[in-house]
């Protein structure tokens, strides 16, 4: 009866601040669980849960040696988790930085937006035009469009060209046996910024064995940044789009143009582009 009375008294002291506190903690816990479920960290979390069970048993029995070991392991558990979950934590922080909170542009003028849109529209036109040529001739290509996540470390692995886009230049970069064809081209601010760059390979074991190093590199780049990656297969000539760790093969030129225009040079009439990576649409979008 006393416990029930204490429980009721708790609600008498409940304020709106407590409700906000509970909602924020629930949201953070939900995001943490979602992050863990989508990565290999789920197995590590199971191991930590088993360790906590051992600790509870050692406390209840008690088992002195087991309690000593588990207490010392748990005392350094936070530092160990930061080290073990470093890739997942980095990816989560990058996602926060790419959210709408980090995209406020207070001092951007309308004229600057128009110039930027025209610059990106020209890039999309030239890229799609040359992608069609490369696809028809089955010439492999790997093109990375930088977004909010800066790719300075990747650019350092290649050669800076910093040139205005043109179909001819894109074709020359990926022409077989040319000095810069074996690598990725980085596009920054609507310009061809660097070529011959090396990308991190994805460690996703669910990737089809039909896909080679070029596609694995494209997927790895999209997993570690918000870049848009366009791949032309050297074996099949198929065009592939990679974004946020998702890969869509067999994209048509019209769909590629529509997607890139909506992402890079959006107009008020642009439709949402996330349908391209909807798994229910299958491999070919």
UniProtKB/TrEMBL annotation:
Segments of this protein annotated with the region Disordered: 265-285
EC top class, as a word: transferase
Family, as annotated: Belongs to the adenylate cyclase family. DacA/CdaA subfamily.
Self-association and partners: Probably a homodimer.
Membrane topology: Single-pass membrane protein
Record InterPro entries: C-di-AMP_synthase, CdaA, CdaA_N, DisA, DNA_integrity_DisA_N_sf, DNA_integrity_scan_DisA_N
An example Gene Ontology molecular-function term: ATP binding
Domain DAC stretches: 86-255
Name of this protein: Diadenylate cyclase
């Amino acid at each position: 009866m006393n416990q029930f009375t204490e429980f009721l008294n708790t609600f008498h002291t409940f304020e709106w601040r407590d409700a906000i506190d509970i909602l924020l903690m629930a949201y953070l816990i939900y995001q943490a669980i979602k992050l863990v479920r989508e990565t290999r960290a789920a197995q590590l979390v199971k191991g930590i849960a088993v360790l906590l069970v051992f600790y509870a048993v050692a406390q209840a029995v008690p088992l002195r040696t087991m309690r000593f070991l588990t207490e010392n392991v748990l005392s350094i558990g936070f530092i160990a988790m930061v080290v073990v979950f470093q890739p997942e934590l980095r990816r989560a922080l990058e996602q926060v930085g790419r959210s709408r909170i980090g995209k406020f542009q207070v001092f951007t003028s309308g004229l600057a937006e128009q110039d930027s849109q025209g610059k990106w529209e020209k890039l999309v036109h030239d890229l799609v035009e040359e992608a069609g040529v490369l696809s028809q001739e089955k010439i492999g290509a790997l093109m990375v469009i930088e977004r909010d996540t800066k790719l300075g470390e990747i650019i350092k692995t290649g050669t800076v060209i910093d040139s205005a886009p043109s179909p001819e230049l894109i074709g020359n970069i990926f022409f077989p046996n040319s000095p810069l064809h074996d690598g990725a081209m980085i596009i920054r601010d609507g310009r061809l910024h660097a070529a011959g760059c090396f990308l991190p390979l994805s460690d996703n074991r669910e990737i089809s064995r039909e896909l080679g190093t070029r596609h694995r590199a494209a997927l790895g780049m999209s997993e570690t940044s918000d870049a848009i990656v366009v791949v032309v297969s050297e074996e099949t000539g198929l065009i592939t789009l990679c974004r946020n760790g998702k890969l869509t093969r067999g994209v048509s030129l019209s769909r590629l143009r529509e997607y890139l225009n909506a992402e890079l040079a959006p107009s008020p009439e642009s439709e949402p582009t996330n349908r391209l990576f909807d798994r229910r649409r299958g491999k070919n979008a």
